[in-house]
Amino acid sequence: MNQDLTDLTDLTGLTAAISAAIRVGEVVRGTTSPNPPVGCAIVGATGELIATGSTAPAGGPHAEINALTSAGARAHGATAVVTLEPCNHTGRTGPCSRALVEAGIARVVYLTADPFAPAAGGAEHLRANGIEVVFQPMRVAALQPWLRSVRLGRPSVTLKFASTLDGFTAAADGTSKWITGSEAREHVHQDRTKRDAIIVGTGTVIADNPSLSGRYPDGSLREHQPRRVVVGKRCVPEGNLTRLGFEQYPTPQEALNALWEAGARDALVEGGAKLNASFLELDLVDAVQAYIAPALLGAGRGVVDRAIADTITEAHRFRITDVRGVGEDVLIEMERDVHRTR
User: Fold this and answer.
1) For the CMP/dCMP-type deaminase domain, which residue ranges apply (predicted)?
2) Which of 169, 101, 96 is nearest to 131 (CA)?
3) Which sign does the torsion angle of CA 136, 83, 216, 180 carry?
């Protein structure tokens, strides 16, 4: 039986360890695909944080291995908190469940069950080897795109846009810089580095020649950059998007198929209204990032360029997962509503 943390008497340090595991997993988001960005924290019997570790790029050690390496002999008798159930299979690396047993870990707390069938079973292996196992279900934001991708068999797609309060992404004269403030734009650049790919349409490339890169406020490139993908059949003029290179596919499905085969699991669509509508019509949008500016235009260009539902009952509905202020703007994050009928 899985044991809940509320049944445990020695909670000292576990809350901090859970926070630490989530934090170090978030740090490597965007660098680990096709593997998930997992975080692990090891805490001693008196509640002291011994070590942390996170998933290395594909082919490198998993989070548990990195944490155990840092902990060394101090791991014996300690508790390991992991954001995802330790794997139980041999791929390019060995099973993390076996490594935890061999290190003498006394208890493992994991926050998310592993839905990937070839890797599942780690909890059972640990329990069979005398390790106390606690499943503490918790939504770990960094893992959500990967979890969706495993279920869908394609990269998770997040539609991102910035609009006024009345839903316009540009004014009637076409101007759009800047709808949101500098803090929101900085957040966008940070978020891009956590993605495997950014997807835009040929219309956006031809009109705007966007960089599609994650940059620091001084304009320099951040350490990790996503793949840059263009969808559409129109030719992109020489010089557009050539600074960092890009790949082009005629349809959204072909782009996602190619990205999946290349190991990408988390894609961000920053398309224009036409591409946004195409992804929505194909039912390929799994999450939404809406940056809302406290401004009204009354008329202008919308998020999509055509109706994607004829009646309110056919609307694409999402479940809000987070709402927070980013400078003077508001960021609303949503995920696909699993109860919707379409």
Assistant:
1) 12-124
2) 101
3) negative
Global pTM value: 0.89
Residue ranges at the known binding site for Zn(2+): 62, 87, 96
Query: 312 vs 120, 288, 307, 317, CA distance in Å?
Result: 41, 19, 11, 10
Sign of torsion, CA 7 12 13 19? positive
Question: Which SS3 state, helix, strand or coil, does residue 184 take?
Answer: helix
At 275-301, the pLDDT tens digits run 999 999 999 999 999 999 999 999 999
Sheet holding 287-293, edge to edge: 247-249, 227-231, 197-201, 266-269, 156-164, 287-293, 329-336, 318-326
| 154 token code pair | 């394609």
Is the model's pLDDT at 54 over the cut of 50?
A: yes
Q: For 193-217, write each residue's pLDDT tens digit.
A: 999 999 999 988 887 778 888 888 8
Say how far apart CA 261 and CA 155 lie, in whole Å. 10
Q: How far apart are CA 22 and CA 8, in angstroms?
A: 21
> CA-CA distance, 175 to 177, in Å (whole number)?
6
Annotated binding site: 62, 87, 96, 162, 176, 178, 192, 204, 208, 212, 215, 270, 272-278
* pLDDT surpasses 70 at 339: no
Please spell the DSSP secondary structure of 205-247, one letter per residue.
HHHH------B-TTSPBPS---EEEEESSSPPPTTTTTTT--E
Provide CATH 3.40.140.10 ranges for the chain.
Answer: 1-140
Q: Is the peptide bond before 178 cis (omega within 30 degrees of 0)?
A: yes
Question: What's the rounded mean pLDDT across residues 8-31?
Answer: 85
Q: Please give the Cα distance from 66 to 126 (Å, whole number).
A: 18
Q: In the chain, which segments carry CATH 3.40.430.10?
A: 153-336
Residues forming beta bridges with residue 288, ordered by sequence position: 159, 334
Q: Supply the residues annotated as catalytic.
A: 64
| 173 Cβ contact list (under 8 Å, min separation 6) | none
Superfamily of domain 1-140: Cytidine Deaminase, domain 2 (3.40.140.10)
Superfamily of domain 153-336: Dihydrofolate Reductase, subunit A (3.40.430.10)
